[in-house]
Carbamoyl phosphate synthase small chain (Chryseobacterium koreense CCUG 49689), 360 residues
Amino acid sequence: MKKKLILESGEVFHGEGFGANLQTEGEVVFNTGMTGYQELISDPSYSGQLVCMTYPLIGNYGINRDDYESMEPAMKGLIVKELCEFPSNFRSQMTVDELFKKKGLSGIQGIDTRKLTRIIRNKGVVRGKIVDAEADEKQVVTELKSFVVPTNQVESVSTKTAYAAPGRGFKVVLVDFGSKLGIIRELSQRDCDITVVSQDITADEILMINPDGVMLSNGPGDPQDVKGAQEMINGLLGKVPIFGICLGHQLIGLACGAKTFKLKFGHRGGNHPVLYIDKNRVEITAQNHGYAIDSESLKNTDLEETHIALNDRTNEGFRHKIHPCFSVQYHPEASPGPEDSNYLFDEFIDLMKSFNSKIG
């Protein structure tokens, strides 16, 4: 199944298709993780994107039942140097190719992923399309230049119906902007009583649940496109402890008067160093975001910076100076990735304890 990847900038990569025999287009981004491809494939934050893996061999431990981050993949496709046809792992139940066929996803292998990554690093995120080998390249480039990235990505991946993950501890409302199951797992391990709600919920509706805390999840796309979220957050500040992750972090920033901007090529992988300013400690983190908070814009808000990315000095975390609210740009649930930042869930538990003792 001969395929080619065509970029809007005109570059063409010839390779071999896998998964469903479909043409697919989206933003082309790269991920530097050596493992965790199953979690990546099922991460809702990759909605609408073609993901290039910089590690050359993908699929060597197969696909299993336990490592999904959502029920249905939201990515548009996968780009790899070499796809393993015969995985070897005691948990393996199918290959990546078999999963893609079942889920109607298309991928391409056998291309120079190092060259593609360098193009993205130099030019920034580009739009691309996986097409049949016979496709007219000039026509595809023309189509890509007029391709508009959808603005309803959060709406498309968020749950439409609230559901519960019961526990006997603190009652937490998880606002699903494209939440990963790893967040629910970490809260459940701390015996939280979790209610997962849709992204368009209002502050009044959340407060009617009477939660001990609110978690704002990760999710795809531009935070400016998430309608109603800033109003909801402002309606919660000071009334209940809040913990934001990734997109949730950006939305808290916007609600408090900070600004966001689109990174040239984003942070995606499980090996990103972050400085925890308070403790002067470096943590290796899992990340997946294409937008970031403008650190300079924090100076005119009630937010203070707590974490900084060491690769490019962009903001990776802040806390509210007045209200019980903090957030980080990376993924402390580590699905996949290192567990250096797992303690943040414990800090959220402590914040709920402290807040409840003050109002009790």
About this structure: The first strand starts at residue 2 and ends at 7.
